[in-house]
Amino acid sequence: MVSRRDFIRCVGGSTLAAWVAAQARPARAGTGAQRPNILWIYSDDHAQNAVSAYGGRLASAAPTPNIDRIAREGVIFRNSFVTNSICGPCRAVVLTGKHSHINGFRTNSDSFDGSQQTFPKLLQQTGYQTALFGKWHLVTEPTGFDAWEVLPGQGSYYNPDFLTPEGRHRRDGYVTDIITDLALDWLQTGRKAEKPFLLMIQNKAPHREWEPGPEHLTTYDDVTIPEPDNLFDDYTGRGTAAREQDMTIAKTMRLGPDLKVWEALKDDDPDKQRAFSRMTEEQRARWEAAYGPKNRAFLEANPQGDDLVRWKYQRYMKDYLRCIASIDDNVGRVLDYLEASGLDKNTVVFYSSDQSFYLGEHGWFDKRFIYEESLRTPLVARWPGVTKPGSEADLMVQNLDCAETFLDIAGVPIPGDMQGRSFKPLLRGRRPRNWRTSIYYHYYEGEGKVHNVYKHYGLRTARYKLAYFYTLDEWEFYDLENDPHEMRSEYNNPDYAPRIAELKAELARLRELYRVPEDPPAKT
Prior knowledge:
It is a single chain. The protein has 524 residues and is of the alpha/beta class. It folds into three domains: 41-211 and 321-430, 3-Layer(aba) Sandwich (Alkaline Phosphatase, subunit A); 234-315, no CATH class; 441-513, Arylsulfatase, C-terminal domain. It is built from 15 helices and 16 strands. It has helices at residues 4-10, 13-29, 65-73, 87-96, 100-103, 119-125, 175-190, 240-244, 270-276, 281-301, 305-341, 372-375, 402-410, 424-427, 497-513; strands at residues 37-43, 75-77, 80-81, 129-135, 147-151, 161-164, 167-170, 197-202, 347-353, 379-382, 391-393, 397-398, 438-443, 456-461, 464-469, 474-479. An eight-stranded mixed β-sheet has the order 5-4-8-1-9-10-2-11, with helices on both faces. Mean pLDDT is 93; it is low at 1-32.
């Protein structure tokens, strides 16, 4: 018998439309109780290392009990990765199930083609209600949603503006709370109870400049955040890209916008004025009461050298984790509502982030590189009656697989031009024999852009990683078993030559599989 997926690969667009319509008719006659609801809670730059369910150095210092609850009641994906570690492109990959070069959104300077196929549109066609609230960051207006209200661009933490089909308006409050309010209001009053739904709750936090909410301005004041062992990495053993990036805590982080030491700036400094311009008098008073004494103590101490880096690390990490504390609070609000309303029994809940983030590893913040801290992303899911509570999945998944998984959960055929694979079997605790053994990665933004991270592509297997910085014509290779923190490239080590040759062949296969265009010539 020909599978649905094989059939779809063979047919044209009009035939596919008829196929989808025919297969969807029984589903439309069903109710929300028969077809699972899908709830996608998505954050921006939330590092896997900052979810306490994953363990690590931050787990006891900054727990995330509500996100952990999803993992405890469902499954945690231990090897979840992205295809292109930057905000907008990750969102485009989730929507389309296609790599950046196929969906057309390679960098944050691109505009998303909203006319193309996305999984929300396919769910709509088969009777799902679809809603999106929060960060969008794809320039063009959302399509495929019955209801949406999104932040313009990066959005603001305090009293943010929102875009709607009716226009732009401002909402009072803290952005993470507001986004959750909008989602809960839609669940309560904005949908038809007899129909299944897709709800995407997409947070701005914890994106730079990490402005904590009013309830968490002093959270972690009495905590010392553990440092990574390579906070003072000098990039020995790595190539040009690691040495020439511009994303270090030591040099790149600004005292004003990034670290909130506004006392170090003049009152008419544009960054200082912009930071407080959206706050009410009450909000600013609470902010200054929380930060003023700490900032004055810092200026009086006037740390230098490594001491200054350590102080900057602590301030950065505490603000970043404070933003996550608000996310975790609001995840708890959503889970509690699902339980109180009875929706929890037939709702698949996911929590993830567009990509991970450097939390001082290699002395960095931000993302972009193929290295582990930005290649990984958190992913936990709960599906009552399907996922075994407290289970783990260790096979490699990517954000490329999300669209396919959501469609599979809903019983909707997966179009053959999508490039990922449904991980629904992994939610059920299965281990498909023919699951992928390597993943492909490609970062397009390049040198001279934000943070000066050179363009590169590569692959990761269970043990090894090979990366090619093609405008530099430089290769890097890492043995993750022997060097999990990627402190030394072994590309020129003859002992690894046979393995590197195998990986280059596999990389060529992946590039052909995903129809990646040829590289531009390397720098001369």
